[in-house]
């Protein structure tokens, strides 16, 4: 079955460009939805950064990080495992980068809206 026939069978739209004046107005009115999505992405990105609501819990004085400090040895912030969870370590660094990317994408989405 060709793509077109399959799309018609599934009733998938073949075009995403607004075709009528009503659709144009709908997209224009929902511009604020894109701005809201941008704000959400920025907030999520900030939460996972090392100083954010989630990220700070993994610092040495946070709820999760303090457990590693209490155990000590390889789990302390300077230990083999613990140092990977800092904002410059392998795990923490990747989370920090992903959080920064999400925050930037939120700014991009909001600016395009």
Tell me, briefly, the overall form. Answer: rod-shaped
Indicate the mean pLDDT. Answer: 77
Proportion in β-strands? under 5%
The structural class is mainly alpha
Instruction: Please work out how many helical segments DSSP would assign.
Output: 5
* Low-confidence runs: none
Rg from Cα: 22 Å
Number of domains: 1
Q: How many angstroms does the end-to-end distance come to?
A: 38 Å
Helix content: 55-70%
What is the strand tally? Answer: 0
Characterize the main sheet.
Answer: none
Listing every helix as H and every strand as E from the N terminus to the C terminus, the arrangement reads: HHHHH
Biased composition (Basic and acidic residues): 98-107
Region (Disordered): 59-113
List the helices and strands and how they pair.
Elements: H1 3-10, H2 21-29, H3 31-48, H4 65-71, H5 90-112
Task: Give an overview in words.
With 113 residues, this protein is mainly α. It has one domain (33-112). It contains 5 helices and no strands. Helix 3 runs antiparallel to helix 5 (90-112). The mean pLDDT is 77.
Keywords for this entry:
single chain, 113 residues, mainly alpha, 58% helix, rod-shaped
Provide a compact summary of the structure.
It is built from 5 helices and no strands. With 113 residues, the protein is an all-alpha fold. Residues 98-107 have a biased composition (Basic and acidic residues).
């Amino acid at each position: 079955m060709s793509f077109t026939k399959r799309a018609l069978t599934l009733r998938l739209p073949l075009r995403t460009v607004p075709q009528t004046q009503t659709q144009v107005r709908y997209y224009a009115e929902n511009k604020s939805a894109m701005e809201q999505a941008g704000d959400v992405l920025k907030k999520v990105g900030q939460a996972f950064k090392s100083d954010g609501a989630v990220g700070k819990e993994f610092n040495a004085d946070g709820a999760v990080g303090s457990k590693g400090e209490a155990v000590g040895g390889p789990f302390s912030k300077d230990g083999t495992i613990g140092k990977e969870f800092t904002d410059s370590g392998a795990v923490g660094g990747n989370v920090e980068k992903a959080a920064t990317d999400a925050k930037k994408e939120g700014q991009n989405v909001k600016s395009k809206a």
